[in-house]
Amino acid sequence: MITPPMNSPTVPIVADELHRRAVEKFGSERADALRPDLLQLARELEAINSYDIGFEDEP
Amino acid sequence: MNPEALTLVEAAGKIRDGVLSPLDYVQSLFARVDAVDPRVQAWTTIDRAGVLAEARQMETEARKKQFRGALHGIPVGVKDIFYTKDLKTTMGSTAFADFVPTYDASVVKRLKNAGAIIMGKCVTTILVFLDPGPTRNPWNTEHTPGGSSSGSAAAVAARTCPVSIGSQTVGSVGRPGAYNGVVSIMPTQSRVNMAGAFPLAWSLDHVGIFSRSVGDIEVTLECLSETPMPSHPRRVDNHKLRIGIVKEFFLDKADAETRGKIDELAGALMNAGFQVAPVSLPAIFDLHPAILRTLVRSEAASTHEQLILAKPNAYGPKLRDLVQMGELIDASTYLRARRIRKHYQRDMVRLFDHFDVLLTPGAPGPAPAGMATGDPVMQAPWTLADFPTMTLPVGLASNGLPLGIQLSAAPLHEGLLLETARAVEEVIGFKDQPRL
Fold first, then answer.
1. Which of B71, B266, B371, B406 is a plausible cystine mate for B362, CB 3.0–4.6 Å?
2. Which residue segments constitute the domains of chain B, with CATH numbers given?
3. Is B338 close to A59, i.e. CB distance below 8 A?
4. Least Cα separation, residue B291 to chain A (angstroms)
5. At what angle do helices B214-224 and B414-428 cross, to 10 degrees?
6. Mean pLDDT, chain A, integer
């Protein structure tokens, strides 16, 4: 069973990094408005990045 | 004869037999548009003079028994993201309000080659995402028709055309199909060419078809298919068909009435001789929302990064959020998501070791009230897997709106899917239509 690390301790760190990038790209007001979405994005990116994919399946 | 009530197969047969004039047919549909479209708002552009001229030409040819193809004289609605030569194509956005393509999209070319008359353009949501257009659900205009192929589904349900073309990136064909009580198909991506259509996320964008019978879908798909449809028996033996009911996840997301309809249908299918059994999903299924959203966000950001800067006011809030989130995803994560998608497809296709077709609800319930386009949760797993998927109306909810079921088959097994759908359609026997 794959359990995506939706509540992994690294999620808030990733979310903060995404917020920093959002401030750079869109300004702090817009980045703050996106905060709930950024947390969800962080959860999903962590799920993607923690999946063990190996090297034998290169597209 | 009431031409707007005819299915595509019925109308095509009458045109070949000289009983129905293509000109009378389009005039009848124009009258229907005039009567109902002010309430439904499924159409955005109809070039009536051009359509009438084309219908006259089709009629002349039909009188001489010259038929261009299976769709000779059949009026078709086309989602307003597919390029149509010399006919406005707006993508549902002010950014393209006056855009007139100089060439036809691949599907439009194929439709014309088969003798279809492009009746007009059907409303899409803004730039093919979740921000709604003006279209209303013909069964109850206080409810959404779904999206993004809002107009294409509603136009068929409202009897203003027998068949229409839509597109699906996540759930934009199956969901409106279910909400509007029509039959729909999203074929395997490679089956029908998306060239000449405005993209949302190119690795997931699929062409779709709406009509009012499985037979109509089959005829249209055969005209659009890039490769011959695999041979399949014209009349399947129900006893040999294995239908898997996917209860986990899908039935959990469905309302009580929809779950009841699925249980009722499962019993009816078993009585009709189908082999029906529950399906267990592979572990990787849990990752599908993360994979799908990473791909959609990243590719939508790539599609829109320049346009959104040039014309920010042309964007709805949901698409703006999507694009901006996509701009924050790095390339390695996007590529990793593409690679995991291959694992997902590999594990999901094994479901067909034990089943021919999978059955799920077409939507969590009937079309919700209001204009938000509803939840694509029933389509997303199959779009990501690139499994050809159909929806069929299964009955009406207690509020009078249609409920839909969904059938999925292995990639490029549209022939088997269509034959199964035809048999299931007979078991269901859905005859209701909206009262406009």
1. B406
2. 3-224 (3.90.1300.10)
3. yes
4. 7
5. 160
6. 86
Query: Does the beta-carbon distance from B283 to A25 stay under 8 Å?
Result: no
What is the domain partition of chain A in residue ranges? 11-49
pLDDT of residue B403 exceeding 70, the answer is yes
Q: Does residue B317 sit at the A interface (CB-CB below 8 Å)?
A: no
Q: What ipTM is given for this predicted complex?
A: 0.90
pLDDT in tens, B143-182: 999 999 999 999 999 999 999 999 999 999 999 999 999 9
Nearest-CA residue of chain A relative to B286?
A: A2
Tokens encoding B298: 């990243």
Query: Do residue B286 and residue A25 have CB atoms under 8 angstroms apart?
Result: no
CA-to-CA separations, B367 to B49, B140, B144, B405, in angstroms, rounded: 35, 9, 6, 13
Q: Are B294 and A51 a contacting pair at CB < 8 A?
A: no
Residues 4-33 of A with CB under 8 A from B: 4, 18, 21-22, 25-26, 30
Q: How far apart are CA B385 and CA B295, in angstroms?
A: 13
CA nearest B267: which of B236, B245, B297, B246? B245
Contact of A1 with chain B, judged by CB distance below 8 Å, is answered with yes
pLDDT digits (tens, 9 = 90+) for B329-350: 999 999 999 999 999 999 999 9
Q: What would the mean pLDDT of B108-116 be, rounded to a whole number?
A: 98
Q: Enter the pTM of the model.
A: 0.96
- In chain B, which residue's Cα lies nearest the Cα of A20? B328
- Chain A within 8 Å of B294 (Cβ-Cβ)? yes
Q: How many CB pairs under 8 A join A and B?
A: 66
* B265-to-B229, B243, B335, B403 alpha-carbon distances in Å: 28, 11, 41, 12
- The pLDDT-based confidence of A6 (bands split at 50, 70, 90) is low
Residues B301-321: pLDDT tens digits? 999 999 999 999 999 999 999
Cα(B119)–Cα(B44) distance, integer angstroms: 11
